Amino acid sequence: MALRYVCVLVLAAVLLLGVVSTPKGLKDKEPQRAPRIPPHFSQEESFRMKETLKGAIQIPTVSFSPGESNVTALAEFGEYIYKAFPTVFKTGFIQHEVVGEYSHLFTVQGSDPSLQPYMLLSHIDVVPAPEQGWEVPPFSGLEHDGFIYGRGTLDNKNSAMAILQALELLLIRNYIPRRSFYISLGHDEEVSGTNGAQKISALLQARGVQLAFIVDECGFILDGFIPSITKPFAFVSVSEKGSLNLILQVNMTPGHSSAPPKETSIGILAAAVSRLERATMPSMFGSEPLRMTLQQLANEFSFPTNIIMNNLWLFGPLVRRSMESEPITNALVRTTMAVTMFQAGIKVNVIPAVAQAVVNFRIHPAQTVREVLELAKNIVADDRVQFHVLNTFDPMPPSPYDDQALGYQLIRQTLQSLFPEVSIVPGICIGQTDSRHYSNLTSGIYRFNPLYAQPQDFRSIHGINEKISVKVYRTQVKFIFEFIQNADADQRPVSHLHEL
Ligand SMILES: *[C@@H]1O[C@H](CO)[C@@H](O)[C@H](O)[C@H]1NC(C)=O
Ligand SMILES: *[C@@H]1O[C@H](CO)[C@@H](O)[C@H](O)[C@H]1NC(C)=O
Ligand SMILES: [Zn+2]
């Protein structure tokens, strides 16, 4: 996942300042047919679990740029998981397929075909990690002070490994799933997902698969961002921003600088870019899911902020202005625009024929690519500026997060058993994840890793000294171990009235 959205989560946490506990939805389950397997791991299992993660970190599965990745490492990773999780690979009701050469798709056949399958999603590639600034080499997987260091320990080999690890441990205990599920591990998420996730999605669509929900990355249990806050909260991204990359181009007759025309290609383009920067895109404050996020957190703010947050009908504009004043929270309430490239000129005394700029829009879920393109043209309002669309991705509409939303409620239920102090709120992912390639398979996409994350953790993702505590990793395995069993329970989550 991109650093940018990680930062957003941080600021969102900062802004929201707190947490509320509103248990609802799933609670006591009906008795299950198979006895529940307790999430207890032996010392030997716990030891092997962390050693296995270290081994995965040591394989430098780097995505450098689209189409350029360390394919030796990606192939090695495939062999590694085969050796690390032998039971997963030899179990009769699990099918393993390699897709797009290096991505992995596991189909775990449940015993009850009437239950709609779901998917656990992650990626095995990482961004590059120059050694400078690291306390230990980024691909060493060294353990230090209870932490395993290395690129991918948070983004997102921890998930890829924890999913397979939890399944391995369940299988060793003779677990037989009732509900089918897929495990999908993409190999090029950091550079678009077109060779991995997109191909897996196409394959499943061709097979006519429909999923109850997907769990992917982009959300954490946010902890310790504000000193006055004691309770952490789980920020589950139910939506994801889209993107639009636009080339703006101005063509003029080239000429000598000694007798210049009134306007040059550079001047016209600069003015256009400046107009775009000064115009802000409309605010989407008040749209879902952010409205619900604020509502659910309101009571946990300390005085007097709690009064303000509980009375958005009155203080909405105040809260909105406060969110808009910080770049990261601003990104949660509107489409953002950034000029990322500007190119013109070849010689000191030549007026160039062509000037070009690239503008990157991150589109709020309440808008579409088309709307934003129209807005941009209206803001520039100059026919001499040509618009060329480089590539686009529409935002992902909010997935359901009500009492009937199976995936969301299973996350809530599993959280409650492992982290009773943590409440759950819906959020927006401002980066992009592989899950966007799966929109045809389900309307329930939840981006969340069951990890406590503190401010320094966010800075390490795509940065230096990325690390995960051994204990936190074990808890992540436990979460998935429990989640898979919860998904097998007899009853769908039902609405529990009056629990709020
Ligand atoms: C690619 O990965 C292999 C190990 O699989 C490693 O030996 C090699 O140094 C890596 N190459 C680059 C350019 O990182
Ligand atoms: C979803 O399905 C439509 C119609 O079959 C197809 O055109 C589109 O490319 C699919 N989208 C994705 C993200 O797979
Ligand atoms: Zn990621």
Describe the protein's architecture and organization.
With 500 residues, this protein is of the alpha/beta class. The protein contains 15 helices and 21 strands. A 6-stranded mixed beta sheet has the order 3-4-8-5-9-19. It has 2 domains: 43-217 and 398-486, Aminopeptidase, CATH 3.40.630.10; 240-393, Alpha-Beta Plaits (2-Layer Sandwich), CATH 3.30.70. Helix 2 packs antiparallel against helix 5, helix 5 (157-172) packs across helix 15 (470-486) and helix 13 packs across helix 15 (470-486). The radius of gyration is 24 Å and the shape is globular. The two termini are 33 Å apart. 34% of the residues lie in helices and 21% in strands.
How does the SSE layout of this entry go?
Blueprint: H1 3-16, H2 43-57, E1 63-65, E2 68-69, H3 71-84, H4 86-90, E3 94-99, E4 103-108, E5 118-123, E6 143-144, E7 147-149, H5 157-172, E8 181-186, H6 197-206, E9 214-216, E10 221-222, E11 233-240, E12 242-251, E13 255-256, H7 265-278, H8 290-297, H9 305-310, H10 312-324, H11 327-333, E14 336-344, E15 350-351, E16 354-363, H12 369-380, E17 385-393, H13 406-418, E18 423-429, E19 445-447, E20 452-453, H14 455-460, E21 467-469, H15 470-486
Helix pairs in contact: 1-11, 2-5, 5-15, 13-15
The protein binds 2-acetamido-2-deoxy-beta-D-glucopyranose (2 copies) and zinc ion.
One 2-acetamido-2-deoxy-beta-D-glucopyranose (NAG) is lined by residues 201, 437, 439-440.
